Amino acid sequence: MIYLDHAATTPVKPEVLAAMLPYFTEHYGNPSSVYKIAQRNRKAIDDARAVVAEHLGAQPNEIFFTSGGTEADNWAIKGIAEAFKEKGNHIITTNIEHHAVLHPCQYLEKHGYEVTYLEVDPDGLVTAEQVEAAIRPETILITIMYANNEIGTIMPIAEIGAVAKKHGIVFHTDAVQAIGHLPIDVRAQNIDLLSLSGHKFYGPKGTGALYIRRGLQLPPLLHGGGQERNRRAGTENVPGIVGLAKAMALAYEDLEAKNAKIKALRDYLIDGIMTQIPYCRLNGHREQRLPNNVNISFEFIEGESLLLLLDMAGIAASSGSACTSGSLDPSHVLLALGLPHEQAHGSIRFTLGEDNTREEMDQVLEKLPSFVERLRSMSPLYEDFVRQNS
Amino acid sequence: MYSQKVMECFMNPQNVGEIENADGVGTVGNPKCGDIMKIYLQIEDNIIRDAKFKTFGCGAAIATSAMLTQMVKGKTIEEAMKITNKAVADALDGLPPVKMHCSCLAEEALKAALWDYAQKNGLTIEGLTPPANRHDEDHAAFGEEN
């Protein structure tokens, strides 16, 4: 199989699994207990926290482990809404956020909050100026994703962070797609809250973290025991936390060299598709995009049928995001770029990983044109197009 | 998520194409939903001699179009009128609930093509009403029914 859906999830690296395994069996103690086998686990969590902090440019006591990116996003957004409700009720975000941000925002709208959904440009970008123009006296939170999961566009986070700082507004970024792939420095970029997820960079599923800038009072989302310094209740997922940290350390090893390789394959695939297949559109910013993301609309055909043909040929890709396949609506991200519905329906995302090869890209480029041609030959939209242009 | 039968029909669809000077043509669906089905019928002596289709849509939409055209060939108009969306779905060993609307679309496309045939020939087909593009409505209505 040629796996090109790394933005959906990644396999756990053998080194990561090896680091985790002892914590399922021999080191099973509850880190909150006093005896030795438990205390060793407390130390494992502390060490993991230090590793995550280091790669974000944060302090260990600013890192809080969660069950994943969705929990981190919910915690950040609902927590700030609650903590600052006396100050105001306005939130600024974009119209291409992941549902883990959009849906908490929509939830808050039902409870008296107002949300500005900034419109992205045709490449999926918002500017710091747009953010600044949307600020009101009652704005309490700016939440803008670091990089988009579908189209890979990277937002100008440092500039937005500077605007947030200037106006004294809390800035959260959903960095789930960026962590492990891009260098991040929460201090330099003025980030107050940052969500991350382990399984996007060869760590285990069900793991994540929220960075909370020191001094920021964020009430808990989950109430219960005193874990995570009274801010996130629930017995720690020790193997998961160990695995997340190990994966993060590995991800940032030789990051530049790995990215250079992946980016070269990405560009090879994009150029190959665009030159071999007519009536295609690359979605997302050409330069300011994740090193591993390819998102292309194939006109006159529908994405799922193309995915099925690719799957039968042993190529795993996705249309929209994995979270929305099964729903019939086209991607809100692609519609936000201004794509007509039929083009939004005809989009495929290929997301590359560290192990993909040039030979695999060649195999995709060998098969894809005939699949597109085959579906176009069945398409009444293509028939109309050919008739009008003949 | 799809049955073996759906995948077979999708991978090797029968009756793809157009019929020149077709006796009845029906197009339903719209780009907004991501499904457009166009059915061509050749009808002689009240019998559907040939049926072809072109479909823009998901795997289920293509499979249901192909199955429908197979099912109507050789049938009288009255027999074809009795083909329901459920019959098409059953012939495919079922569809996932979220894809049942594709079978509705196939039934509507057939009826739209028959309506076109009736209009062209000044005929009345019992039980046939003018095609309203019901597919403009919310998908959820179809999904929940099934």
> CATH topology of the largest domain in chain A, what is it called?
Aspartate Aminotransferase, domain 2
Contiguous low-pLDDT stretches of chain B (5 residues minimum) are: 135-146
Inertia-based shape of chain A = globular
Question: How many domains make up the 3D coordinates of chain B?
Answer: 1
Give a structural overview:
The complex is a heterodimer of chains A (390) and B (146). With 390 residues, chain A is of the alpha/beta class. Chain A folds into 2 domains: 14-251, Aspartate Aminotransferase, domain 2 (3-Layer(aba) Sandwich), CATH 3.40.640; 254-388, Alpha-Beta Complex (Aspartate Aminotransferase, domain 1). Chain A has helices spanning 14-20, 36-56, 69-83, 99-109, 128-134, 157-167, 227-230, 238-251, 255-276, 303-312, 332-336, 341-345, 358-377, 380-388, and strands at 2-3, 63-66, 90-94, 114-118, 139-143, 170-174, 193-197, 208-212, 280-282, 293-298, 315-316, 347-351. Chain A has a 7-stranded mixed sheet with strand order 2-8-7-6-5-3-4, sandwiched between helices. In chain A, strands 9-10-12 form a 3-stranded antiparallel sheet. Chain A has a two-stranded parallel sheet with strand order 1-11. In chain A, helix 6 links the parallel strand 5 and strand 6 (170-174). Chain A is globular, with a radius of gyration of 22 Å. The two termini of chain A are 40 Å apart. In chain A, 50% of the residues are buried. The model of chain A is unreliable at 321-326 (pLDDT under 50). In chain B, helix 1 (4-11) packs across helix 2 and helix 2 (59-72) packs across helix 5 (100-121). Chain B has helices spanning 4-11, 59-72, 77-81, 85-91, 100-121, 140-145; strands spanning 24-30, 35-44, 47-56. Chain B has one domain (4-123): Alpha-Beta Complex (Sufe protein. Chain: A). Chain B is globular, with a radius of gyration of 14 Å. Chain B is 42% helix and 18% strand. Chain B is α+β, with helices and mostly antiparallel strands and 146 residues long. Chain B has a 3-stranded antiparallel sheet. The chains are: A alpha/beta (390), B alpha+beta (146). At the A-B interface, helix 10, helix 12 and helix 14 of A face helix 1, strand 2, strand 3 and helix 2 of B.
